[in-house]
Amino acid sequence: MTTSAISASESSLNNRNPGVPTDERLWTSLRLRWALLWVLLIGVEGGNPIPFGWTGLPALLRSSIALLLRLVGVDEGTADEHSALLVPLSLAIVAFVGAAVWTMREQRSRWNPQLRELLYIALRYVLAAELLRLGMAKVLPSQALPPDPTDLIRPLGELRGCDLMWRWLGYSPIYTVFAGLPEATAGVLLLFRRTTTLGALLGAGAMGNFAVIASTFCGSTTGFDAGIYFVISLILVFWDGDGLRNIFFLNKRAIPATPGHIWSAPPRLRSVGRVLRGFTLLWLLNESGWRMYQRWIDLGAQSPLAGVYRVERFTRNGVEEPFAYEASGRWRFVAISAYANRVAVRTMTDDRFDFAILPKAHESPRMNRDRVEMTSPHRGALILARGPSDTIEFRYSRKDNGRLTLEGMLDGATIVAELSRANVEKFPLYTAQWDVMQRLRSR
Amino acid sequence: MTDSLAQVHRWTPIQSFLIRFGLVYALDYSVMRSYPLPLSWSHLPQLRLQLLLWFATELLGATTAEAYRQMNFYSIVFTAALSLVVALVWFAIDRARRYEAQIHDAMRVLARYGAGTCMIAYGMGKVFPELQVNGRLQPVNWIMPLGQIDGGQIVWLWLEYSPVYQFFVGVVEVVAGALLLFRRTVTIGALLTIASMANVVMLLASFDKRLWGATTPADPLILSVFLLLPQLRRLWRYFFLGKPIDPEPQGFPWRAAWIPQAGTALKVASIVWICYEHIYSGYPRFIDVAKRSRLSGAYKVEEFTLNGSTRLPQGREGDRWLYVAYNDDCFFFAVQKLDGTMVRYVENNVPSWGGLRHAECERRTAGDGTLVLRRMRNLHQGEKATLMPITYRRLSADEVILAGTIDGDSINARIRKIPDEGFPLYNSAWRDSPTAR
Fold it and tell me: Three-class SS string for B380-424?
């Protein structure tokens, strides 16, 4: 949609040429304005390059979309489920209406070169911010993490496709870093005019691949989100389409199509532009650099309770239950997650119970470290939650040799489980890369 | 234009050495992999294999088993060493260096066709999944706790999960290979090949060292780097400095008139061969993958006796079977025990690789019968596998009785099939994919 709008607009951009018919210039103006408004709305909604949450704009935008969707008969559940698909589509419609009104009120097309320049800048920065965010979350792995202890005892069939995808990506920190490098590099290249085409090519490859992975593993709506940024990359690639065609397919002389500075604005306004650019770069450095680094360090925390445990002894109301399939309710394995926020239990018949450990952590740069500190004493209590109003208190007692005792009331019975920690290095899945990454974080 | 390259371009000694190195590398690669044309009739690949084994065992100190296991690794080292030696000798002898343009052109043609046809072959194996992947994630994997799967398996499981993504990856590889076959599009073809193969090499190397040595597809990557090297200055100028660039000089440095005709014939023969190999010849295998064992699936073990007793002796309580799974192609049979361990067996009577084993498997498992299992492990030289026949008898559509002696114990198990769709991992694309017709 937008791609064709841009390519068509390119063909008639030279609309200072009096020979171009008025209708065509109008149509070009409409498409240019539509594309510009759409990418600005995408940027505001996605917080790229700068989140405007404090202004209330994104919230207002989302409320407006929700209202729009309700007006056309989409119920709240469907809207939530398919938000990745419906939000960009709604934004495209809103942008079109806005562009139509704008073009009707202001039919002159003499600002088209400036609009085109603005569009080029907006596309670059919105895409760069998204690629930097995604790339740096892999270069300093915090997006996909190695499998958690609670995953190690889970049959593969119990995972969903999306879980499998993230476990796969997080399995090897080396590969995660490698996968993030093209995205982060593309993000950096897009920040400079001269290297925009290369950044867009890299971005198109990375986002195209990610869109296909996300839609085939996590559902089409998830992939659509990445697909939007793929489309933005393609627009920037086609911006330089003639040059690329000449280099890669026709072997002819190629001239880069990077637009030059076309502003005839006074120097003061130019200075404002430079300040704005500097501020955006600093902001991106902070968001994708410093904050990502803090998060990466925080993810290195590990609770002393974390691990996979074999249940050596299990008593219910003081009666020991044997390690046999017939003792169906007896616990077989217990796993406590790295940040002590989840417990998974598997019984003799392989039924699974998942508990969240309360209280839930609040988003902060020390979120996981704070949680881990809560479980550092050798004795204490864990508040386990099966549902919003179903909580159980379990006391734990930890010994340094990997022994752990859990004691509490579950479904009206007193449970005492004596656990011994399994050596994670013995699992075939284990790779020394997990420890290397852990050591890097600890430094 | 014929002599223009030789006259205009002044070859530095480093360039002269590099084009010789590249030509020998591409030539050895063509012999080894039979790309772009099959050479098995000439016995050259077999001769090269003997040389490679001698090189790995005598010069690098590997055992023959290691050399076979890490074949690709040793092969790359061998090719690089051979190319280095031959290029050095050739460079020293040929002082006049009058045929640099011809050597360069021959190197590029071989590298283009070698890498291009190889990429098409890799891609076709994913566009029309044959034997490497089964069109869906296999039941044995569904019952495996994640911790029991190793890095090497995860790589393939991930690809097997999504036939759509597999197809996408295949298309990218085929397109990259096809672009390498034409002079004008070689730059974009080489870039796509480098991106695609660097990803695969990194994936294999970081997930499993053994897998890297065994299957790494580094050769098309290396050949594409040869092809891209002369373009780097132009690409840098355009993409980093934002300056215009002139077209790449594309001369044809051969005097003899038959050479262009032979080149065209080689191109046509390569394309015909690759189409034959992967479409015509591979199609029956592609169709075969859609067929599945009638026993295929994951089962919960509802009743189990070990040596005639339902109560297992002390110390062996963990040996009770919890789950059983059998793959679509009759190859893998796996058991998850109560203590969480996974034991994998292979069907002895099914060919491990090649042939139309899915169809045969479907036919054999239509009624009641016997599986002849053996433990899945590498056998020492001269060692014979212990075969364990196990009978299966259907009680109903989803209920089966297994009986036999496995690992020295007499077992009897009543198992019930877990519906495929009952697993959260179940992907509707497994049902809808072209291989599941």
Answer: CCCCCCCCEEEEEEEEECCEEEEEEEECCEEEEEEEEEECHHHCC
CB B157 within 8 A of CB B149: yes
Q: Which of B142, B239, B304, B341 to mutate to test the interface with A (most CBs of A within 10 A)?
A: B239
Residues 6+ apart with CB under 8 A from B23: B103, B106, B107, B110
Q: How far apart are the C-alpha atoms of A120 and A116, rounded to whole Å?
A: 6
Instruction: Kindly report, residue by residue over A142-157, the tens digit of the pLDDT.
Output: 888 899 999 999 999 9
A249 vs B: CB within 8 A: yes
Distance (Å, whole) CA B60 – CA B57: 6
A442 touches chain B (CB under 8 A): no
Backbone angles phi, psi at B21, to 5 degrees: -60, -45
**Residues B351 and B357: beta-carbon distance below 8 Å:** yes
Give, for B204, the enclosing helix (H) or strand (E).
helix B186-207
For residue B355, the model assigns a pLDDT of 62
| Rounded Cα distance, B418 and A158, in Å | 12
What is the C-alpha to C-alpha distance for residues B271 and A241, in angstroms, rounded to an integer?
29
Q: What is the DSSP string of A167-219?
A: HHHHH-HHHHHHHHHHHHHHHHHHTSSTTHHHHHHHHHHHHHHHHHHHHHHH-
Cis peptide before A359 (omega within 30 of 0): yes
> Exposed e or buried b for every residue in A394-430, given b needs 16+ CB within 10 A?
bebebeeeeebbbbbebeeeebbbbbebbebeebbbb
What is the per-residue pLDDT across A242-279, written as a single tens digit (0 to 9) for each?
999 999 999 999 999 876 666 666 777 778 888 988 99
Q: Is the bond into A58 cis (omega within 30 degrees of 0)?
A: no
Dihedral angle over CA of B38, B40, B41, B46, nearest 10: 150
Percent composition of chain B: helix, strand, coil (DSSP 3-state, to 5): 55, 15, 30
Task: Show the tokens assigned to B429.
Answer: 């694309």
Asked whether residue B198 carries a pLDDT value surpassing 90, the answer given is yes
Residues 280-339 of A with CB under 8 A from B: 308, 322-325, 332-333
Put simply, whether B171 touches A (Cβ < 8 Å) is no
CB atoms B317 and A322 under 8 Å: yes
Distance CA A125, CA A280 (A): 9
Spatial separation of the C-alpha atoms in residues A213 and A207, rounded to whole Å: 10
pTM of the full structure = 0.89
Structure tokens at B310: 């339902």
SS3 letters across A20-64: CCHHHHHHHHHHHHHHHHHHHHHHHHHCCCCCCHHHCHHHHHHHH
Partner-chain contact B145 A253, CB within 8 Å: no
Residues B333, B325: Cα–Cα separation, whole Å:
6
Chains A–B, number of C-beta pairs less than 8 Å apart? 165
Q: B320, A217: Cβ pair inside 8 Å?
A: no
Which residue, A144, A153, A109, A177, is CA-closest to B145?
A: A153
Burial (CB count within 10 angstroms: exposed 0-12, middle 13-18, buried 19+), residue B151 = buried
Distance from CA of A38 to the nearest CA of B (A): 28
How far does A267 lie from chain B, in Å, by closest CA? 25
φ, ψ at A395 (rounded to 5°): -90, 145
Summarised one tens digit per residue, pLDDT across range A279-296 is 999 999 998 999 999 999
User: Does the CB of B162 have a partner CB in chain A at under 8 Å?
Assistant: yes
Around Cβ A298, how many Cβ atoms within 10 Å?
20
Give the burial string for B167-206 (b: 16+ CB within 10 Å, else e).
bbbbebbbbbbbbbbeebbbbbbbbbbbbbbbbbbbbbbb
Burial of B374 (0-12, 13-18, 19+ CB in 10 A): middle
Residue found by looking up tokens 């019975």 in the block: A413
Contact B154 A333 (CB under 8 A): no
Q: What distance in Å separates residue B138's CA from the closest CA in chain A?
A: 10
